[in-house]
Protein: ATP-dependent Clp protease adapter protein ClpS
Amino acid sequence: DGKTDDDAGVITRTKPRTKRPPLYKVLILNDDYTPMEFVVHVLERFFGLSHSQAFELMLTVHKKGVAVVGVFSFEVAETKVGQVMDFARRHQHPLQCTMEKE
Ligand code: TYC
Structure:
């Protein structure tokens, strides 16, 4: 188990590995212009937070500059970032949302 040897005698794997997909943190960044209530709305709408959770997290970003709002697979993280950036742009707010590998 964990070691394969093909017809040419090449060892292609020596260590048994379980496959876990990499996870990505989605971050929201502070800025001076996006209204607090807009950020709260974004956190409720795209990240499923309650109003009080969203308000608390918004204040954390406001005070500290950045916060992780969730951890997702690459595909889900990419979708969330795109949804937030698109929503902010449509409302002409400079809110920034990014992702980074955990
Ligand atoms: N700093 C903004 C303000 O004072 C509020 C804000 C919070 C903006 C969090 C972005 O990610 C953010 N209106």
